């Protein structure tokens, strides 16, 4: 009787009885990393992906990081692991002192599984800097706790990535050290410091600095 049935009907009947299962289609993520102001492509940028795999006990999804790099035209191409339940673009970053690291695991950059996803990722360029001079003149404290916070860095990072911390920075009496921090102009960058850890309390000292594009501002902390 089966010989008289069309071939497609036979295949359908076979699958219904033996639970035919297709292999999942590949999940591909491609796109371009660009300068947010000029639109120029950024070569050698890193795009960080998280593949979420079911744990051995099935209680949670384990995040496995993998990375893709942009080519000379700023383009990247990545294929999600076949065993991933779902995946996300976690962050993208270029040279640490040129561009702000951008966090991306939210709706505009959501990855649709078993399809080809296309994104353009703009990175904000640092365009000013603070040259910070720190000197221990009194040795009342052997350490200084320091936080530097910039609104754009915080917004792009959406986490404490936007805050530069030293906890603590040890400087002996009479010693002086200098650091250069890239930042974003035309907004206030705030510096907090003190001789004790103020992570859960108001900092002993703070100052807000406004920088213009291209500025390198010298700032001194004496303690």
Q: What is the name of the CATH topology of the largest domain?
A: Protocatechuate 3,4-Dioxygenase, subunit A
Number of strands: 14
Give the CATH class of the largest domain.
Answer: Mainly Beta
Trace the largest sheet across and list its strands.
3-2-5-6
* Named CATH architecture of the largest domain: Sandwich
Describe this structure as you would to a colleague.
- By secondary structure, the protein is mainly beta.
- The protein is 9% helix and 45% strand.
- The chain contains two helices and 14 strands.
- The strands form four sheets. It has a four-stranded antiparallel beta sheet.
- Strand 5 and strand 6 (102-103) form a beta hairpin.
- The N and C termini lie far apart (95 Å).
- The model has no long low-confidence stretch (mean pLDDT 88).
List its traits:
223 residues, mainly beta, Protocatechuate 3,4-Dioxygenase, subunit A, Immunoglobulin-like, 2 domains, four-stranded antiparallel beta sheet, 2 helices, 14 strands, 9% helix, elongated
Summarize this, please?
The chain contains two helices and 14 strands; from the N terminus they run αβββββββββαβββββ. The chain is mainly beta and 223 residues long.
């Amino acid at each position: 009787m089966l010989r008289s049935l069309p071939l497609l009907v036979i295949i359908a009947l076979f699958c219904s009885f033996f639970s035919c299962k297709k292999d999942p289609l590949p999940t591909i993520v491609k796109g371009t990393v660009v300068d947010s102001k000029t639109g120029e492509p950024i070569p050698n940028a890193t795009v960080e992906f998280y593949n979420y795999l079911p744990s051995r006990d099935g209680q949670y999804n384990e995040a496995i990081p993998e990375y893709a790099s942009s080519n000379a035209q700023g383009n990247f191409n990545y294929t999600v692991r076949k065993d991933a339940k779902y995946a996300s673009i976690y962050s993208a970053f270029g040279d640490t002192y040129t561009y702000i690291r951008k966090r991306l695991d939210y709706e505009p950059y959501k990855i649709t599984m078993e399809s080809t996803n296309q994104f353009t990722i703009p990175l904000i360029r640092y365009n000013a800097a603070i040259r910070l001079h720190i000197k221990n003149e009194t040795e009342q404290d052997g350490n200084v706790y320091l936080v530097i916070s910039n609104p754009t860095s915080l917004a792009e990072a959406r986490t404490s990535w936007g805050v530069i911390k030293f906890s603590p920075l040890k400087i002996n009496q009479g010693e002086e050290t200098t650091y250069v921090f890239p930042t974003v102009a035309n907004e206030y960058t705030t510096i907090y410091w003190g001789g004790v850890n103020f992570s859960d309390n108001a900092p002993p000292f703070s100052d807000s600095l406004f920088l213009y594009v291209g500025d390198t501002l010298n700032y001194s902390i004496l303690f």
